[in-house]
User: Fold this.
Amino acid sequence: MIRISSVRRLRAAIGLAAAAAALTACGGAPAHQGAAATVGDERITIAQVQARMTAVREGGTAQDGAPATNEQPGLARHAVNDLILDKVIVRALADRRLTVEAGEIGAARSADSKVVGGDAKLAELLRVKQGVPAAGIDDFYRQQLGLTKLAGGQDPTGTAGDAAIRKALVDAGTALHIKVNPRYGTWDTARIGLTDTVDDWLPKNVRPL
Assistant:
């Protein structure tokens, strides 16, 4: 894993939220009935999406009992996008026989926690900026560390590393034949995200964790 400061790593993660937050509604290919999406043989259910949204919202009220503020726009679509992306990254890593160990996740999370002032501050930052529920923080770091590994030892912010990550995710997305319920949009395999984003999901010169 290429080492950079925790501050830069966290800023990069937050920067990725801008593209996800820009998602808007559009038509798409039908998914299996009752599913938000199908990814290969797996279903992402509407109930899963709703549960994730509830967890994000409840995370905002847990601080002081007040209603959540600064909720990320397009929370449902962001949840679907992230749940699909997780499966795409898992497939891409498996195809290349790469793994992300629990110790790596713990180390990255601990480093960022120290930078922002503690676990609670980190959890709230990820909830607001990335739509990540408290129970999903390890999954978030698993994704980001996985992206770094998909760069193949190259700088993920450089041209070669960026190209390697994109190719791995496009190959995995193509193999998984992703279908999305029209209420959430369609998965654009080449852009690695739901359609109608303003920018690509993985902007150039933005390094994943």
Q: What stands out?
A: The CA atoms of residues 56 and 207 lie 25 Å apart.
